[in-house]
Structures are given as C-alpha cells and as structure tokens.
Automatic annotation (TrEMBL):
Protein name: tRNA (Adenine-N1)-methyltransferase
Organism the protein comes from: Halocatena marina
Keywords: Methyltransferase, S-adenosyl-L-methionine, Transferase, tRNA processing
Location of the tRNA (adenine(58)-N(1))-methyltransferase catalytic subunit TRM61 C-terminal domain: 70-219
UniProt cross-references to Pfam families, sorted A to Z: GCD14
Example of a GO biological process term: methylation
Superkingdom of origin organism: Archaea
GO MF, one annotated term: methyltransferase activity
Amino acid sequence: MILLVRENREYLLAPGETLETDLGVIEVPETVAPGDIVETHLGEEFTARALRGPDLFAHFERTGAPMMPRDIGLVMGHTGCSGGDQVLDAGTGTGVLSAYLARAGATVTTYEHDPEFADVARKNMELAGVDDAVTVRTGDVTDDLDELSEQESRFDLITLDTKDAPRVVERASELLVPGGFLSAYVPFVEGTRAVVETARSTDLQDIKTYETIQRGMDIDERGTRPSTAGVGHTGYLIFARA
C-alpha cells in the first residue's frame, strides 16, 4: 500500500488500483515508489509516500478510540522500547501501539478479548507490515498469566490499556526481566489510582504518573496563540519498573 498526497487530501491505495475522484481517475502504477508523481487522467498530480507511524494512525480500520500518537510517544520515550525487546500488550484495540512498537524493532504479543476487534487488528498489522512481529491473541490476558509467568523468557515491557490492568500489575514482577518496564494507559482518575496503589503493593519501583495534555498553536497573519479548538487531555499514563 502507498499514500497518494495532494495538499489537504490523501488516498491509501495499492499498486495497480484505480480510484475515481473529483480531480480525475487515479491509476496507480504497479511499480510506484515513494517520491513518484502520479497524475490523474485530468493531469492533476499526487505525490506517493510510504506509510509511516502517523499515517497508520490515520488509516487503520478503527474498532474504538485508539491511543493517540502523543501517548505512544511517551510510552516509547519513558520505556526506551527498541529492537530485540519482547513486549506483552493487553487491550489491543485498533493495534496502533503494537504497530509502533513493532516498527521500532520489538516483538509484540498482544491480547484482545473481542474476536472481531482482534481480526481487525490482525489486518491492521498486515497493513503496517509488522504481522510477522505482532501476535494478536484473542482472549483475556489475565487467563494466561500463569502460563506467561512460567515461560522461559520474560518481557522487557508490559503495556496495558484494559480495565483489569491492576490484575496484571499484581503479576508484573513475575513477567518482566530485571529492569523491565510497565506502562499503563488509563482514561479515568479512579482507574489510575487503582493501578498506582496495586503497583505500590508489589516490588515494582520508580512508579510515576502523568496526565497527557497537548495543545496546538494557531499561527497566522494576526499573530500566534494557543488554539481554542480540540481537546488537550487524553488520559493518564503510569510507569513502573521491575
């Protein structure tokens, strides 16, 4: 798949695919590459781009509200997830976090309790080109905690976006390598407190909690000011270390 971009519009198409638009018919060459110019039959030009992380966020099939790029960036920045890491993820959803981690070189095992959501996530992993690095399991991770804790290799990172996060946090020390990280994304204050209190009751260390807020800036001929549009708050992130 490749993106064809022109000003404020973009289309995700496969080589050889045809699409009718108000700017004319787009016929994507079989050998299209990033940087190529593709013209419609009316001579309107689109530029080809390879898919990158933010593009996946925009073009994944969604099964709910995905984690925002700013939250994903904090997870990756605070845990240092990189090539060779083994990741356990719970609450796959759209799969955008798993895709980002896999594109950074990690191998991810992710759990999604809804079978239909899990099927969508698998298709999204194919679109991202990381289906060989991400295993989407259908079910509840808490049902497999005994099995996961008994396996020979442990995880470098556990990421959670699920209501039963405290139950996983209770067992995190059994699942993580020494110095490994836990990261939990929680939408509500009450759930955040439950995760933190559970982490404090274990031998996890360096427990830190953040609210993620981001506001855009409006820059035009009148001047520069924070944007009044959009929602700055997305959720809460808890980090801890084994």
